[in-house]
Design a protein that fits this description.
Blueprint: H1 2-20, E1 25-28, E2 38-41, E3 49-50, E4 57-58, E5 67-71, E6 88-93, E7 99-105, E8 112-113, H2 121-128, E9 133-136, H3 141-148, E10 154-156, H4 157-160, E11 165-167, E12 177-180, H5 181-191, E13 216-217, E14 220-223, E15 233-238, E16 243-248, E17 251-252, E18 266-271, E19 274-276, E20 283-285, E21 291-297, E22 300-309, E23 312-316, E24 330-335, E25 341-343
Parallel strand pairs: 5-9, 6-24, 9-10, 18-24
Antiparallel strand pairs: 1-2, 3-4, 5-7, 6-7, 8-12, 11-12, 13-22, 14-15, 14-25, 15-16, 16-17, 18-21, 19-20, 21-22, 22-23
């Protein structure tokens, strides 16, 4: 009798154990593919989700539409607000020897971005490569024509100054116009623009980079845009952070919104034909035909070819293989001549 009761208890415990373990353990029967019994453990792991334009891990899938903002880079406009949140930043000459930024936000839209400056046609073309909502304050004639024709969904501070766009009274115009996150959201609603979509990701590697003999050291990268030192750019590599600082006029670039230094993982320096097209000094810049450049990451650089792939600037090795970026913030600097770039 005691043996019978003991047998019932043992069987009951086994059944309970199987019930509680059914989600994590399963038995695979003998067959040709599995010559012996195995216990295959399903750990219940969820695949890591990565931000499409930075390659960094995020907590949940985001279908935030990219937002591309024209950001002022005149020395009186520094430090700018919101740049530490950008996934991708293009730096390109406007008139004279002064660059402007096209900052593209997707993984994290900051509360305040700016100062916002006026648009040029080549910035609009780059923003369209991400199907981004485009934000500017002012425009060239050609850029106005592109926006008026509906070529891109846009919010222009010339129309919304004082409503969607706010002026910072501590700075002087035209270096004091900002767009707030709530202003973007209100503008999207007013104009009936889409604000969510499935974003086509950039190509990132989640593996450690391997540097062969095609890579050289890049502890410091200097880009000469002007005879005025305030307009030139230096990137300094930090071994501790494994990212680059950005320096202009001897000042390390910080985000005025949070006081953080910009931490740049990938730098692309790409050569493109620049031409002056009018008496104001406006330019045309060849974004279409590709050319030479450098890919700079982890204190190393390699010579590359860049191509325009569906409106985005993508790096390729010299033998034509697309380069996977390292996860993090990416800056893409357009230059008229690679000879204006010094790497050491």
């Amino acid at each position: 009798m005691h043996k019978k009761i003991l047998s019932i208890i043992v069987i009951s415990m086994l059944l309970v154990g199987c019930k509680h373990g059914e989600k994590s353990v399963k038995t695979v029967k003998n067959d040709d593919k599995n010559p012996s019994n195995e216990h295959v453990i399903d750990k219940g792991e969820i695949d890591t989700i990565y931000a499409p334009l930075s390659g960094l891990p995020i907590s949940q899938t985001s279908e935030q539409r990219p937002v591309a903002v024209m950001v002022n880079n005149y020395y009186l406009a520094r430090p700018q607000s919101g740049l530490s949140n950008a996934d991708v930043v293009y730096e390109i000459l406007a008139e004279g020897d002064i660059t402007r930024f096209l900052a593209i936000f997707q993984s994290n839209i900051p509360e305040k971005i700016g100062p916002v400056r006026s648009a040029r046609d080549y910035y609009i073309n780059l923003a369209n490569g991400y199907h981004a909502l485009f934000i500017c304050h002012g425009n060239s004639p050609k850029a106005k024509q592109m926006m008026d024709s509906g070529m891109i969904d846009a919010l222009n501070g010339l129309i919304y100054d004082g409503t969607l766009f706010k002026r910072d009274k501590t700075r002087k115009a035209p270096h004091n116009s900002y767009i707030l996150k709530e202003g973007i959201e209100k503008g999207v609603a007013q104009r009936h623009y889409s604000y969510s979509e499935k974003v086509t990701p950039l190509d990132f590697t989640q593996k450690d980079l391997v540097f062969d003999n095609s890579w050289k050291n890049a502890g410091e990268v200097f880009i000469k845009y002007s005879h005025d030192a305030r307009n030139n750019v230096t990137y300094n590599y930090s071994n501790s952070t494994k990212k680059f600082q950005r320096v202009q006029n001897g000042i390390v670039a910080k985000d005025a919104l949070n006081g953080k230094e910009l931490q740049i993982k990938n730098i692309l320096v790409v050569e493109a034909t620049h031409k002056i097209i009018d008496s104001y000094g406006r330019r045309s810049i060849d974004l279409e035909h590709g050319g030479k450049g450098y890919y700079i990451v982890d204190g190393k650089y390699m010579n590359i070819q860049w191509k325009n792939v569906d409106g985005r600037i993508i790096p390729f090795t010299l033998d034509g293989t697309e380069i996977k970026l390292s996860p993090g913030q990416t800056w893409i600097n357009f230059v008229p001549f690679l000879n204006d770039v010094t790497i050491k």
